Amino acid sequence: MKGNELKPHIGIFGRRNYGKSSLVNYLTGQQIAIVSDLAGTTTDPVKKTMEIGGVGPVVWIDTAGIDDEGTVGRQRIDRSLDMLAQADLALILFTNNRFEAEEVMLVDTCRKRGIPYVLIYSQADRLKPDPALIERIEHDYETSIFVLTVKDPSLREPLTARIRQALPETAYVHRSLLGDVVGAGDTVVMVTPIDSSAPEGRMILPQVQVLRDLLDNHARAIVCRETELADTLSAMKQPPRLVVTDSQVYDMVAKLVPDQVFLTSFSVVLARAKGLFDEYVKGTPAIDRLQDGDRVLMLESCTHNVTCEDIGRVKLPRLLARYTGKELHCEAVAGLSPITGPADGQPSRALTDYALIIQCGGCVVTAKQLAARLAPAIEAGIPVSNYGLAIAYMNGIFERSMRIFSNPKSRLNV
């Protein structure tokens, strides 16, 4: 169920020829990254999955040097810093007894963004570290430096233990999606439309994640399409505790589900689990303040084929136009592309060009990646919302879509 993007990400950062690629190979025990004495060998981030005892699988990210040169070099540096923002843990390499502006920038960025980091003095077999330098850095940053040579295999386990200690549990400890509001014996109905945007022969990831979570919590799950929901509900001897629906049929489902039964969407469930729920709740009412000519950005964490029934690029923009009665310009960025980058061939835009940003549930990315992606918008004061909450708001069921989360393990008298 969990793809690479859902595993903890550990990034390796430093100048060119400081042993970043060698460290990837050293930690994984495989020749994953190309190693060369030629500066700038690594041009794009290289990812490799590996198991760490006590943590599970993690993704190692080898990045380009932060001292790269030229126009293309600047782009490589920016790409490395993008990876830093998405990392759950940063390994910062320095050597040659140099700890200067580049290293200070990396540490300061980590501290500003709350990213845990480990300082590693690499290539110690070439030039031993100056004890005075090590003492000063450890004093200034209140940390201990790991001195490493990849020619010594006995250092692999101590370094792995240090990494395991530094990696926050929130990056790898599974948090239940609904475990605090649904329990053993509860019945939950999942409404899963099947249209041209649905993948052939399988359910979409948010539906799979919610289904597995219900099973883990020993709840009974009933799955149906929206066209069978009325019959499904009428056939039940007792009303379900909760109905979870795809956001695009919220309006239809809300009319069929009795008001005393909790109702929410897959997107809202995921939004709550990813840690930005309060920002979404605060930002969603900005829909009422949209004006003619405003730009709205749809952020999709995955990449997929666009169809005429695509929710983020077709249905949600159509609903926004109908609800607001305004002439809006809706654009979309997929994957983890920068918010200010080109969107589907459209011109690059400044973040402040957008009056509202609406993020999908984020089923294929980590909470850290999602937070890093939206942080610039939040810091700039741009309202952010979520697909499910935005659609619920425009259908008049905003509060209802969140009611279940105010009722942990309680039971309604239905």
Please give a structural write-up.
With 414 residues, this protein is α/β, with parallel strands linked by helices. It folds into three domains: 4-171, Rossmann fold; 187-270, 3-Layer(aba) Sandwich (Rossmann fold), CATH 3.40.50; 279-394, Rossmann fold (3-Layer(aba) Sandwich), CATH 3.40.50.11410. The protein has 14 helices and 14 strands. A six-stranded mixed β-sheet has the order 2-3-1-4-5-6, with helices on both faces. A four-stranded parallel β-sheet has the order 8-7-9-10, with helices on both faces. A hairpin with a 3-residue loop joins β2 and β3 (56-62). Residues 33-43, 304-308 and 410-414 have low confidence and may be disordered.
Give the secondary structure arrangement, pairings included.
Elements: E1 9-13, H1 20-28, E2 46-52, E3 56-62, H2 70-86, E4 89-94, H3 101-113, E5 117-121, H4 131-141, E6 146-147, H5 156-166, E7 187-191, H6 205-216, E8 220-224, H7 229-234, E9 242-245, H8 250-256, E10 262-265, H9 266-273, H10 277-283, E11 295-300, H11 311-324, E12 329-334, E13 354-359, H12 367-379, E14 384-386, H13 387-394, H14 398-402
N- to C-terminal distance: 34 Å
Q: If you consult CATH, what is the topology of the largest domain?
A: Rossmann fold
The side-by-side strand order for the widest beta sheet comes to 2-3-1-4-5-6
What is the SS-derived class?
Answer: alpha/beta
What share of the residues lie within helices?
Answer: 25-40%
Largest sheet: 6 strands, mixed
The quaternary state of the protein chains shown equals single chain
